[in-house]
Amino acid sequence: MDQTSAPLDAGTDPERLRALGGEIAATCAGFNLRRASRAVSQHFDHALAPAGLRMTQFTLLSALALGGSASINEISHALVIDRTTLTRNLRLLREAGLVTAQSGQTGREQRFSLTAEGREILARAIPLWRSAQDSLVDHFDQARWPGLVADLDRLVEGAIGKHQHPGSKLEPLAPTPERS
Fold first, then answer.
1. What CATH topology corresponds to 32-163?
2. Residue boundaries of the structural domains of the chain
3. Quick one: 30 exposed, middle or buried, by C-beta within 10 A (0-12, 13-18, 19+)?
4. How would you class 57 by CB atoms within 10 Å of its CB: exposed for 0-12, middle for 13-18, buried for 19 or more?
5. How far is it, in rounded angstroms, from Cα 149 to Cα 141?
6. CB atoms closer than 10 angstroms to residue 96
7. Using CA atoms, how far apart are residues 132 and 55, in angstroms rounded to an integer?
8. Beta bridge partners of 70
9. Radius of gyration (C-alpha) of the chain in whole angstroms
10. Which of 14, 89, 122, 159 could connect to 61 by a Cys-Cys bridge, CB 3.0–4.6 Å?
């Protein structure tokens, strides 16, 4: 049995916990991805500030621009965000006049889409995003960037696959005839 699958009894010994903390910092996907995610979010938040957006808002507006009209479930699934957080963020975008909600075909779901103001803000934010994106890609390495994005996608699929119900599949939010 290797160390990653053996049960560890760290107890409360400070030296043992310090060693395990170092191992976690050096090897844990969750630790390192959260750290990278916070740094990248701060980078984009700073870049998008002149448009009055944070990265979370930009991501939602971009997803709605891509998908046209989408339900909470579709957006939640595509962006891997819990429904409660998504609902709160969509409410804020609705209050700002950037997103609108309409009843779906069944009347039981709401479908969200960009307003004219939402499209205008997104269009204003895209050059800011592009500049921030280009600086990250250039700093990382343009030739390696596509591989990093593909690896992250595989990581998401692997992590989500562990928690999905049988038969469900991670689908990106993309335009379809029923979403146009």
1. Arc Repressor Mutant, subunit A (1.10.10)
2. 32-163
3. exposed
4. buried
5. 12
6. 15
7. 11
8. 112
9. 20
10. 122
Which pair of structure tokens corresponds to residue 29? 């996907």
pLDDT in tens, 21-78: 999 999 999 999 999 999 999 999 999 999 999 999 999 999 999 988 999 999 999 9
Cα separation of 55 and 41, whole Å? 6
The amino acid at residue 56 is T
The C-alpha atoms of residue 160 and residue 158 are separated, in whole angstroms, by 6
Q: Which two tokens stand for residue 103?
A: 């009843």
Taking the whole predicted model, whether its pTM rises above 0.85 is answered as: no
Length of the chain: 180
In this predicted structure, the answer to whether residue 1 has a pLDDT above a threshold of 50 is: no
Q: How far apart are CA 29 and CA 123, in angstroms?
A: 34
DSSP collapsed to 3 states, the chain = CCCCCCCCCCCCCHHHHHHHHHHHHHHCHHHHHHHHHHHHHHHHHHHHHHHCCCHHHHHHHHHHHHHCCEEHHHHHHHHCCCHHHHHHHHHHHHHCCCEEEEECCCCCCEEEEECHHHHHHHHHHHHHHHHHHHHHHHHHCCCCHHHHHHHHHHHHHHHHHCCCCCCCCCCCCCCCHHHC
